[in-house]
Each structure stands twice: as structure tokens, then as C-alpha cells.
Write a structure and sequence with these properties.
By secondary structure, the protein is an alpha/beta fold. Helix content is 41%, strand content 17%.
Amino acid sequence: MPVPGLLLPSPVEVLDDERLDAAGVRLLLKRDDLIHPYLPGNKWRKLKYNLEAAQAAGASRLLTFGGAYSNHIRAVAAAGALYGFDTVGVIRGEAYDPLNPSLQLAVDHGMRLSYLDRQTYRRKRDPDVIADLRTEFGDFYLVPEGGSNALAVRGCAELVDEITEEFDVICCGVGTGGTLAGIAAGLEPGRRAIGFSSLKGGEFLSDDVAALQHEALGEVTANWEIKTGYHFGGYAKSTPELNAFIDDFEARHGLRLDWVYVAKMMYGVFDLAAQGGFATGTTIVAVVTGPDFEASSRS
């Protein structure tokens, strides 16, 4: 499924940082944020086979779910514009006026926004909620929140084969679990994956990753774990400590980290390294799944 301007495989870059040198570890960045301006990183990988399935089913409309700062919502809107699908984004919570830059970009790509109160949103998988949405919007191909399903696992697993450098551990942010499920599925024996939850109370994500792997693979691999202590207040929330880390990382390396997912993962990698959480000589790959859209939209 060709996309104009798609950059695959995405580059792998060595990150030189004296703090990591002191910890005896080597860090590589898998720059999935460079895959496409509007379909960066795991968003393209998750959507790739879902878009093929939607086309094969003859669907003309995509409907999906997300929060107000969802990278996934923007990506589905952009994918719809590129492939000729109508798109509907069902947003958790109250309507925003004016729209934040994230939702505005989705609307600019032709997405129609709808809102569900938080109580109803928690039941978004229930048949009655889906039936109500079909009554309102007509037939649609349902892309799950975050794009995470068995097809997404298949797409994310392809990331691993693009890495030609030797490595021991691969790290990614976790919101719905599809990226981690796929990456772990694609690993060779002896390698492991670490996910960093961006959600407060994200312990349930282990069950979600296991369910996704079981759906996609028929089994659950034993080569992954999720760190839940680096959420910095929860989804789309930050703290002065995280903001300072983002500013310092940009000053050192010229890369502005996405504050919703990537910065939390990267902070966790550096913190674990400083605590001796990685054996000396370990090579780590950190997957950069998206740019700091909010920062770029203000510039």
C-alpha cells in the first residue's frame, strides 16, 4: 500500500550521551517519527493492514476513538484523506472550543468529530454503543482506539526486521499495547522488549498486550514487560520534571521529544540506566514513535 513520501525503513541513529556512557550502555534511536509527516511511527505500522482490510471490505468510512491529544486520531484523519475514506473521530469527554492543534489537524484532513461522555466512552466496545454510532454515521470500518488489534500487531512486528544493528533490548511507549505486542512478537530469541506506560494505573496494560498477542499469534510471548512508574500524572499529562528533561534532551541532541509518549519512555530508559537496570555492554533501541506535534504547531 504505497503512500507518497513514506520513509521506510526508518533511520536508526546512535545517541551519544555521557550519562549513558557512564552507565555502560549504548542507545540507538529508531526514528519512526520520520516515516511520514502525518502518519509517523507506530501509527502507520498499526494502520497499514487495517487500511488494506477496510479497502478489501469495500468500506468508505473509518471510525475510531481517542483522547483530545490522540496521535492516532490525527493519523486516521490523514490516512482517510490519503486513501479516500470518510473519517469519524469519537473523542473522549466534552467538546473543545476552540479545538486544540491536534484535533484541528484532524478536522483539516476532513475528519468529523463526535464526543462521548467519559462513562459512555468506557463502554465504547459494547454492541449497543457501536450500534448507536452506526445509526448516527452509517456503516463504517471500525479502527479500535490507538489502532491496536491483531492487524496492528502484524504491522508493528515488521519494525524489528528493519534494525540491522545488533541490540539486546528494545523500548517503546505504551498507550493501548499494540506496538509493544507487535515488537515483542518480532524479536529473535535472547532479545527483550520494555514498554513504558503513559497511563496512570497502567497495570492493566499487561493483560491487553497479552490479549493482543494471543489474538494475533495464538500465544503470548515471554520476552516483554511494562514499566508503569513513568506516567508523570497520566495520559497527556506532564510535570515540571518531565518538561525539564524534554528541554535538556533537545538542548543536548537537537530532538524535541513527544511529551505524551516518547519523552516518558526516554526518561525511563535514562533513569533505569542510571540505576544499573541494564547490564554493562547492553545495546538498547528506543523507538521514537512521534514528534512533539504540540511544539511544532506553536512554532
